[in-house]
Specification:
With 347 residues, this protein is of the alpha/beta class. It folds into three domains: 49 residues; 150 residues, P-loop containing nucleotide triphosphate hydrolases (Rossmann fold, 3-Layer(aba) Sandwich), CATH 3.40.50.300; 93 residues. 49% of the residues lie in helices and 17% in strands. The chain has twelve helices and nine strands. The strands form three sheets. A five-stranded parallel β-sheet has the order 2-5-8-1-9, with helices on both faces. Helix 10 crosses helix 11. The longest helix has 53 residues. 27% of the residues are buried.
Length: 347
């Protein structure tokens, strides 16, 4: 074997070694790039939930009045929330369930997530679904003047309010809970009992979400005799603490009404509340504290309303609860009789 052949062998070995080294470098670059992309995606996922949580529509807490009657219900709620039991407030329209639920939720100093029950609400509306497309583009340039481009399009899961609340340890306020069909609320069973939320439609390990230890739930419902109200399944009611509410006492309703009306004297507010409480006993419709607030607002611009004006304002406030126009005159008659009986004086 000549010296030149030995040189060719060495040179060939060097060439192979050089190619292997370059291939290893390319592989390393690919791994580094893949790792970098993975870390970036993880960072986006970590940021996604708080962002979605902060974007949730949450009604602002309204002015809140605390009398002894309100404190009594509030303390009962806190007692159960402290021992990690979901609270279910049940009562007629306008008795203050939602305002109390929002106040207790904000008092926890945790994020608040709001759900409004509806007959069309589904399990996906509560927990989430594959609702968006995610495009990932890759551009690799390992050889001079050669670019490899690849687009990957895949479904992206979007969390809905219940899942956000469970992940973040928020306080869930589920308003009008019993207006949602029971089948949609089945996901709550494992949340309240096993501390796990199952995401139907999600894949792999991501299908199950551990409930954050700070998660709490407050649900509100009208009584079952109301139109459009579904009776929740017994298995779910077994896991809720039920607190039935009625209308507040006279003094509490006066304070609540006064907190909403700035330029109305106390005597006029007391007369309006007394009149609405009288009508509550006379009529077959629910007349909540909100009706007194609306009547006070309607009378606020009038310095010295006479009984005819007072009657008209009260009829306007309550007429939306009537099914037909033919019932309005009967309502007016009852309002006039109630004004006569309570001696409402708004001067």
């Amino acid at each position: 074997m000549t010296d030149s052949s030995r040189e060719r062998k060495v040179r060939g070995s060097q060439i192979r070694s050089s190619r292997e080294s370059k291939q290893q470098q390319r592989n390393q670059r690919r791994e580094d790039k893949g790792l970098s992309r993975l870390q970036k995606q993880r960072g986006q996922n970590e940021q996604r939930t708080p962002t979605q949580l902060s974007d949730q529509f949450i009604p602002e807490e309204q002015s809140f009045v605390e009398t002894e009657a309100v404190k009594e219900v509030k303390n009962r709620m806190r007692r159960w929330i402290d021992v990690e039991r979901p609270v279910h407030l049940i009562g007629p329209t306008g008795c203050g369930k939602t305002a109390l639920a929002m106040h207790v939720a904000h008092d926890r100093d945790r994020p608040v997530v709001w759900i409004n029950g509806d007959a069309d609400l589904t399990t996906s509306d509560l927990v989430g679904e594959y609702a968006e497309k995610e495009r990932i583009s890759e551009h690799d340039k390992y050889i001079h003047n050669v670019v490899k481009s690849k687009d990957i399009i895949r479904d992206r899961w979007v969390d809905n309010p219940l899942t956000l609340a469970v992940r973040e340890g928020a306080t869930l306020v589920y308003n009008e809970f019993s207006r949602t069909k029971p089948v949609a609320n089945n996901v709550l069973l494992s949340v309240f009992e096993e501390g796990v939320l199952e995401l139907p439609g999600q894949r792999g390990e991501s299908r199950y979400v551990d409930v954050h230890p700070d998660f709490r739930a407050i649900l509100t419902s009208n009584s079952v005799e109301y139109a459009g109200v579904h009776e929740p399944q017994d298995a779910l009611l077994d896991r809720l603490v039920g607190i039935h509410m009625g209308f507040y006492d006279h003094d509490t309703e006066v304070e609540i009404t006064r907190s909403h009306v700035d330029n109305t004297g106390m005597e006029r507010i007391e007369s309006i509340v007394r009149l609405m409480r009288e009508l509550r006993g006379r009529l077959d419709i629910d007349i909540g504290t909100r009706a007194a607030i609306m009547a006070a607002e309607g009378l606020e611009p009038i310095d010295d309303p006479d009984r005819s004006t007072l009657t008209t304002v009260c009829v306007d406030v309550l007429a939306s609860k009537l099914a037909q126009r033919s019932e309005v005159q009967a309502l007016r008659n009852e309002v006039e009789a109630a004004i006569e009986d309570v001696g409402a004086d708004l001067s």
